[in-house]
Design brief:
Distance between the termini: 54 Å
Number of domains: 2
Number of strands: 0
Largest sheet: none
Structural class: mainly alpha
Low-confidence stretches: none
């Protein structure tokens, strides 16, 4: 078996894959959600630390820009401005 990870031996990777295969779909879903939430939280915290004087709205727009692009950020800002938010 060819390993997917560059820093993991084939034996360890096989054990890891076998462990994943034993999980139920619900367990996999919850683990995926938890990992996604952790990544989002870490990203938001980094943005906040890099922009300590920004408002929450500005931080939220920076998050959108960094993860979804400037075009979507501009559209969201225009929408929020037009709707008084």
């Amino acid at each position: 078996m060819k390993t997917i990870s560059l820093d993991t031996t084939p034996k360890v990777e096989k054990i890891w894959i076998d462990l994943i295969r034993t999980k139920t779909n619900q367990e996999k879903y919850h683990q995926t959600c938890a990992l996604s939430q952790s990544a989002i939280s870490l990203s938001k915290r980094a943005i906040m630390r890099a922009n300590p004087n920004s408002t929450q709205s500005q931080l939220d727009l920076l998050f959108v820009e960094y993860h979804y692009g400037l075009d979507l950020k501009v559209k969201l800002k225009n929408y929020l401005d037009a709707n008084g938010k």
